[in-house]
Specification:
The complex is a heterodimer of chains A (669) and B (312). In chain A, 68% of the residues lie in helices and 1% in strands. Chain A has 669 residues and is an all-alpha fold. Among the domains of chain A are: 206 residues, Cytochrome C Oxidase, Chain A; 87 residues, no CATH class. In chain A, α4 crosses α8 and α5 runs antiparallel to α6. In chain A, 60% of the residues are buried. The model of chain A has no long low-confidence stretch (mean pLDDT 95). With 312 residues, chain B is α+β, with helices and mostly antiparallel strands. Classes of the chains: A mainly alpha (669), B alpha+beta (312). At the A-B interface, α4, α8, α10, α11 and α12 of A face α2, α3, β7 and β9 of B.
Chain lengths: 669, 312
């Protein structure tokens, strides 16, 4: 009846996962109970869970990401503390657990921390920057988000019911085949990633369509903000690369469930094929993550330098070059499998070439600051921190791209340091910069600067300590994924890295405190006009938070930096633009389709993991029925009357006019 | 000077300055490394590792020459052009310069052209399958990675050992590697290059220990619960000592045949190294051709001396 699922799946005899699971379950239940008892459920259902508004969906992606980043970081704390006590000893986490922890750490950070954060920021900001009302397919957007959340849920369920994969974050065969991983762990991985992968692919389709087909009148490609260019490149990569992952994991599923031989080393299979296929996705994936982060930095650095982005067209070329080149480098992930000098040499060169456009971007950001008026706000600090630390990661990447160097550094702590260096510097710092930058637009009040800066300084200091120690450990010959070790040389640096993670923890605490303090003091942090940073792109032309329809009338764009042009004219003439002719606006209706699809997907995933075939069939049926019910809708939009549009717009215009006159008087004085 | 004989490895020093640079850099760096340094890759004990460390150091210095000024410039620009500095000139419309763009594209391009050449040449000269430049005939060692131990077969001598690698110093060793089950990666950090081991496939690796000494090897590809215990001593000994060791192994009495192989292929780790005095003919080829059954994975019980999986 329940397939492989029995009570023994719950780790009642293992204190660590039991306690961790209990804590998480209690917190989750507590939050749900508070929501229901305080009567917030109808509001949440109506305004957030069934929302198809890109702004709301973007915020939910970011919330999911922040929660999962904390889960992933707690895995990191477990790993560092295990290493600190596992010198010539077993430590407190036996291999069965430790192996799950480092696997979960990677999976959560990449798939459920970094990806949702970047997709969330793109969802929120791209339509606003393009001067349009929403993405191309709003309900599909909601489906994408909820499928991602479903994958995240499955990974977290594995903590209490069953186990997670013990193969590392990429499940290499033969270890991931059913002979050597007979448990449900790899299956949890496979189904969670497949489900959320569908969501991501749909998101890619959505955003590419939006950027290519929906822009404000007059906004040609070369007048789009840089963030939209990087979003385009990233989502094109999603469309091209994610099907590879889906196909590869599907093949592994067939191997595990139906005894196929795609990746076995016998009966005609070949395990090396997995490496090729996985990394053909895996390398574009890191650029899927990094490109939107570069876009955030372009926005933040130009805004807080008071200057346009330096060499915009060059930056566009560099972005598209990165997009194309990211498909040509994947073999550098396995130089050490003996491909030979020619193959290794070709991929070494392509891997180095991709460093060029990235280097160009760094220099262009540098010259954006040159001649500017730099405001060292929290978002700008994260960007500067990125510029200073990322170049080290890029340099070590070029080093690792040299096959003879990789022959002694592959899979070492040096490698671990390199990819954390680039991922944390680019993606995480970019996420925090974007979060700080767009928070007032999303919620109508800024984040507290003092706590933000504290979070930055603790964060970057801890980061440098941990991964500096890791680089050194790699040179000392330490390999990754060890549960215990007995080399005296390594011990001091492992202890240093444990100290570093404590410093990073202080940074995380500051981030949380920042949010709490900002919410409490939101009146004093209010963003009244909608343009708290003296911004340059169209999202700052709306109120904070923007009305559901974003713009009362789609703006006419005549050049780069559309909003800066509007604002400069307004400042010269000391008056706002003409009021538009207000018309009723049609917006898509909210829909529970996304949430319900994800509900059934979670059932399908859980059922497939535990071999509960009837439940899986029921889940497929339910998902299909949901789709049909959605397709059967007659009414898909609702109309906002012109008077309502006028009222909302006039309110924002009057605050902006006040601010304009106030600033004018200050200048005159 | 670039190596004279194509296809053969010599000490790859890429310029006369490179020959000076490396000892200087090492002298700067080594005092910071503490302890007996059994694994540290910068202080290699063989020509392969030495060449690789050389390349690593030179490439690092070149990259530092690019990134350190960039890091400094970032901080300097941000501080000089900060809002509170009245002396900085505000140029709000300056957003392009052809000259700067030329420099900004060409400096990285030139750098990676140079490093790319190093990478191409290095990838060929230091390819693991490239034989070493030596007058001595290479010693053939066959390697099988097991869960979670290493089996070394010496086909010429007809002996085998588990979890202990003994090689004659100053003699090239040609490894042919495979796996009994999952992937692993054979690595002796102070000798240089690592290479993956995969079932049904043979990878080739050429290494040499310059002098006698005690080294250490490990696996660098995660292979399961016992992965952390997959380290093994590597002893580079004189030719005489090597012959003695072989004789000692031959006298041990144990035979490595399919039955004893099946026992050590079960999951578990070894308390102490073990040796075999005789090898069943064609065993390694049978492992590669998969006529010998693979490692069975979880569920196999241990034998005497082999700690079953999960014990710690």
């Amino acid at each position: 009846m329940l397939g492989k699922l029995t009570l023994s799946a719950i780790p009642l005899d293992q204190p660590v996962p039991l306690v961790a699971g209990a804590v998480v379950a209690l917190i989750a239940l507590g939050v749900v109970a508070w929501v229901v008892i305080a009567g917030h459920l109808p509001y949440l259902w109506r305004e957030w869970i069934t929302s198809v508004d890109h702004k709301r969906i973007g915020v939910m992606y970011c919330i999911l990401a922040l929660v999962m980043l904390i889960r992933g970081f707690s895995d990191a704390i477990l790993m560092r503390s295990q290493h600190a006590v596992a010198y010539k000893a077993g430590g407190y986490l036996p291999p069965e657990h430790y192996d799950q922890i480092f696997s979960a750490h990677g999976v959560i950070m990449i798939f459920f921390g970094a990806m949702p954060f970047m997709i969330g920021l793109m969802n929120f900001a791209v339509p606003l920057q393009l001067g349009v009302r929403d993405v191309a397919f709003p309900t599909l957007n909601s489906v994408s988000f909820w499928l991602t959340a479903s994958g995240a849920l499955l990974v977290n369920v594995s903590l209490v019911v069953g186990e997670f994969a013990r193969t590392g974050w990429w499940p290499a065969p033969p270890l991931s085949e059913v002979t050597y991983s007979p448990g449900v762990g790899v299956d949890y991985y496979l189904w969670a990633i497949q489900i959320s992968g569908v969501g991501t692919l749909l998101s890619g389709v959505n955003l590419v369509t939006t950027i290519l087909k929906m822009r404000a009148p007059g906004m040609s490609y070369l007048r789009m903000p840089m963030f939209c260019w990087t979003a385009l490149a990233s989502n094109l990569l999603i469309i091209a690369a994610f099907p590879i992952l889906t196909a590869t994991l599907a093949m592994l599923i067939l191997d595990r469930y139906l005894g196929f031989h795609f990746f076995t080393d016998s009966h005609g299979g070949n395990s090396m094929m997995f490496m090729n296929l996985f990394w053909a996705w895996g390398h574009p994936e890191v650029y899927i993550l990094a490109l939107p982060a570069y876009g955030v930095f372009s926005e933040v650095i130009s805004t807080f330098s008071g200057k346009p982005l330096f060499a915009y067209r060059s930056m566009v070329m560099a972005t598209m070059a990165i997009f194309i080149l990211s498909f040509m480098v994947w073999l550098h992930h396995f130089f050490t499998m003996g491909p030979g000098g020619d193959v290794n040499g070709v991929f070494a060169i392509t891997s180095m070439i991709i460093a060029v456009p990235t280097g160009v971007k760094i220099f262009d950001w540098l010259f954006t600051m040159y001649g500017g008026r730099v405001r060292l706000t929290t978002a700008m600090l994260w960007s500067l921190g990125f510029m200073v630390t990322f170049v080290v990661g890029g340099a070590t990447g070029v080093l690792l791209a040299i096959p003879p160097a990789d022959f002694v550094l592959h899979n070492s702590m040096f490698l671990v340091a390199h990819f954390h260096n680039v991922m944390v510097s680019a993606v995480l710092f970019g996420a925090f910069a974007g979060y700080t930058y767009w928070f007032p637009k999303a919620f109508g009040f800024q984040l507290n600067e003092w706590w933000g800066k504290a979070a930055f300084w603790f964060g970057i200091t801890g980061f440098v300590i941990v991964f500096g120690a890791f680089y050194w450990l790699g040179l000392l010959g330490m390999t990754r994924r060890m549960q215990h070790y007995d080399v005296a040389d390594w011990r001091p640096w492992i202890l240093v890295s444990a100290f570093g993670v404590a410093v990073m923890l202080a940074g995380v605490v500051c981030q949380v405190v920042q949010l709490v303090v900002s919410i409490r003091r939101r009146e004093s942090l209010r963003d009244i006009t909608g343009d708290p940073w003296d911004g340059r792109s169209l999202e700052w032309a709306t109120a904070s938070p923007p009305p559901v329809f974003n713009f009362a009338a789609l703006p006419e764009v005549h050049g780069e930096e559309a909003y800066w042009a509007i604002k400069s004219r307004a400042r010269e003439q000391m008056r706002l633009r003409e009021e538009p002719a207000y018309e009723p606006i049609e917006m898509p209706l909210n829909s529970p389709t996304g949430f319900i699809c994800a509900f059934f997907s979670t059932l399908i995933g859980f059922a497939m993991i535990w071999y509960i075939w009837w439940l899986a069939a029921a889940g497929f049926l339910g998902a299909f029925v949901t789709f049909v019910a959605f397709a059967w809708r007659d009414t898909v939009e609702y109309e906002i009357p012109a008077s309502e549009v006028a009222k909302v717009n006039r309110a924002n215009r009057s605050t902006r006019l006040e601010a304009l006159h106030g600033a004018g008087q200050r200048r005159a004085a | 000077m670039l190596a004279q004989r194509p296809g053969r490895l010599t000490r790859v020093t890429l310029s006369r300055r490179g020959g000076l640079l490396r000892p200087l850099a090492l002298a700067a760096v080594l005092p910071l490394l503490c302890g007996c340094q059994q694994h540290n890759i910068l202080d290699a004990k063989g020509p392969v590792g030495a060449a690789e460390a050389n390349i690593l150091i030179i490439a690092t210095i070149i990259m530092l020459a690019i990134i350190v000024p960039t890091m400094i410039a970032t901080v300097v620009f941000a501080l000089w052009y900060r809002e509170a500095n009245p002396r900085a000139r505000y140029r709000p419309d300056w957003a392009f310069s052809g000259r700067i763009e030329l420099v900004v594209w060409s400096v990285p391009l030139l750098t990676i052209t140079f490093l790319g050449a190093i990478a191409w040449i290095g990838a060929h000269r230091l390819d693991p399958a490239t034989p070493l430049d030596s007058d001595k005939k290479p010693l053939e060692v066959q390697v099988v990675s097991l869960d979670w131990k290493w089996l070394f077969l010496y086909p010429e001598a007809g002996v085998a050992s588990v979890n202990e690698l003994v090689v004659p110093a100053a003699t090239p060793v040609r490894f042919r590697l495979t796996s009994s089950s999952v992937w692993n990666s054979f690595f002796v950090p102070k000798l240089g290059s690592m290479i993956y081991t995969m079932r049904g496939m043979v990878t080739t690796l050429n290494l040499m220990a310059d002098q006698e000494g005690e080294l250490r090897g490990l696996s660098t590809h995660f292979s399961g619960d016992g992965f952390s215990d997959m380290h093994f001593p590597v002893r580079a000994v004189s030719d005489a000592a090597f012959a003695d060791w072989v004789k000692g192994a031959q006298g041990s009495g144990a035979t490595l045949d399919r039955a004893s192989y099946a026992e050590i292929a079960k999951q578990g780790t070894l308390d102490a190294p073990r040796s075999f005095g005789a090898i069943e003919p064609g065993l390694f080829d049978g492992i590669v051709a998969q006529t010998v059954p693979p490692g069975p994975g979880p569920g196999g019980s241990g034998v005497e001396g082999v700690r079953p999986k999960g014990g710690s």
